[in-house]
Amino acid sequence: QVQLVESGGGLVQAGGSLRLSCAVSGRTFSSLAMGWFRQAPGKEREFVAAISRNGGSTYYGDSVKGRFTISRDNAKSTVYLQMASLKSEDTAVYHCAARATPPFYDGVYYSSRSYAYWGQGTQVTVSS
Fold first, then answer.
1. CA distance 84 to 120
2. β-pairing, 10-13 with 122-127?
3. Using CA atoms, how far apart are residues 84 and 52, in angstroms rounded to an integer?
4. Paired sense of beta strands 10-13 and 3-7, if any
5. Exposed, middle or buried, 64 (CB in 10 Å: 0-12/13-18/19+)?
6. For the chain, where are the E strands, in sequence order?
7. According to the model, what pLDDT value does residue 103 have?
8. Which pLDDT does position 61 carry in this prediction?
9. 3-state secondary structure of 90
10. Apex CA 5: angle with CA 84 and CA 47, to 5°?
11. What would you report as the CA-atom Rg of the chain, rounded to the nearest whole angstrom?
């Protein structure tokens, strides 16, 4: 059973930075493509960032491009989301997600429907 546990959320002032972590267990981490999504109250789930199984490919949502960076450490079975220049509109619950990918495919997935495994989420609140 694949488990994803996010951490690192909290309250931060606008313009500040925060790093989220997502620890994965139950499956060989290097076989998983990873993504981050967020959901604010009353809004639909939004794609934030994705990274391929080997880390060779990344992709970002337009609203975070240039401010957020996704990375992974396969030795630690952890994916990170470094967030900078935070804005009040970044306030949301952030979820990490995972899906298995074939060994020959080092691509990314940006649709939530592509992911089979999800974490419970961590709250990020940006005060203006």
1. 23
2. parallel
3. 22
4. unpaired
5. buried
6. 3-7, 10-13, 18-25, 32-39, 46-51, 58-60, 68-73, 78-83, 92-100, 117-118, 122-127
7. 87
8. 98
9. helix
10. 50
11. 14
In angstroms, rounded to a whole number, what is the distance separating the alpha carbons of residues 40 and 32? 26
Place of tokens 């809004």: 43
Secondary structure of residue 73 in the 3-state scheme: strand
Task: Please say whether the beta carbons of 79 and 97 come within 8 A.
Answer: no
- What is the mean pLDDT, run by run of 10 residues, along the chain of 128 residues? 96 98 96 97 96 96 98 97 98 98 92 97 97
Nearest to 80 by CA among 61, 100, 55: 55
* Rounded Cα–Cα distance for residues 90 and 110 (Å): 18
Q: What is the DSSP letter of 64?
A: T
List beta partners, residue 92.
Answer: 124
Q: Report the alpha-carbon distance of residue 54 to residue 107 in Å, rounded.
A: 9
Cα–Cα distances in angstroms (integers) from residue 57 to residues 1, 81, 83, 105, 121, in the given order: 26, 15, 18, 10, 24
Q: What are phi and psi of 62, to 5 degrees?
A: -60, -35
20 pairs with which residues across the strands?
81
